[in-house]
Design brief:
- Helix 4 packs parallel to helix 5 and helix 10 packs across helix 14.
- By secondary structure, this protein is of the alpha/beta class.
- The chain has two domains: about 140 residues, Aspartate Aminotransferase, domain 1, CATH 3.90.1150.10; about 250 residues, 3-Layer(aba) Sandwich (Aspartate Aminotransferase, domain 2).
- Helices cover about 45% and strands about 15% of the residues.
- The strands form three sheets. Strands 2-8-7-6-5-3-4 form a seven-stranded mixed beta sheet, with helices on both faces. A three-stranded antiparallel beta sheet has the order 9-10-12. Strands 1-11 form a two-stranded parallel sheet.
- The model has no long low-confidence stretch (mean pLDDT about 95).
- The protein has 14 helices and twelve strands.
Length: about 400
Amino acid sequence: MKNKEIYLDNSATTSVDPAVFKKMQPYFYQEYGNPSSVHKLGEKARQAMEKAREQVASFLNCFPEEIYFTAGATESNNWLIYGLINKITEESSFKPHIIISAFEHKSVIEPAKYLEKNNLAELTLLPVSKDGLVELDILKKAIKKNTRLISIMYANNEVGTVQPIKEIGKLIKEINQSRKQKIVFHTDAVQAINYLDCNVNSLGIDALSLSGHKIYGPKGIGILYLRKEIPIISLIRGGGQERNMRSGTENLAGIVGLGEAMKKVKSLGSIYNQNIKKLRNKLITGILKDISNSQINGSMENRLPNNAHISFRGAEGESIVMALSQKNIFVSTASACASHSLEPSYVLISIGLSPEQAHGSVRFSLGRWTTNQDIEYVLKILPDIIKRLRKISGR
């Protein structure tokens, strides 16, 4: 095992599945036409793009025309928030109210805060429980007459907490029945796609964001699902691609890869989830048993099957990551989008961890190719690393 790389950072990004890579290859050097071109190569490119759109729509149980291709979930989240609020303020004089959780990804929090700062929207940041869950009664009390957008992530990227999305969708649907100005319900489903039901109709979702590189597809491609009747304006204007909603020549190879990646996820089914959960539980049990003063963060019951987020008292998370990296074991301390920050994770602070506990935390996120031998090797190596780091820190 010494020379094998053990990748346990799949919540940050995944490798491209070989079947996905194979499907993408011709679109780099053979089928390279522009989907907007009217000649034969352009037509073939357009057909490939629309096939991928249908694959995504089939996965989400929506119409293909409700799928918009983007550069990733960060763009999708920004587009949904800015595009919706700008459309509302164009058509009315009242200031719209946005509700998000304190648990959201920065690509939801920052646009919402920007709108609040510039007096374009009101913002409510919902607290979460110590398990990281949004509580329905608190959400219901936060809703106002001018609430127009609620954005709650499906599964957290750091501690893996799975939110009660279906129950939230049902609550919003009930409230909307007596409202003229409907509330739009959006979820960032980046971490959920691999493992959870993402049928947008049964979940009651109006808008959904996802990224290809979290589901064994390519980087630089994502989607925004937007229910037909939801009003939104374009943020990227130009050539009128994506039905005049998102201009720019389409990333054809990425789009084809995303479609194939979602097809593969759909084919794996629940057995894959059971296997990865079994390995994850073995990792958690072994760590808590063999390493004193370690604790699991977040809900065990409502949790992604691949996520283990653990705090080690008396050891710095970054030092643990670096020490494991020397052994070819790759994990992380936080969201890869914010892992270079010296501030403690706002996600961990929001569930009641102290700054010291937050700084001593590590995320292990298993993946499609994690093996039992990988987990056993980590459990063999990790206790000595923690012991050595605690000795250095004098704790």
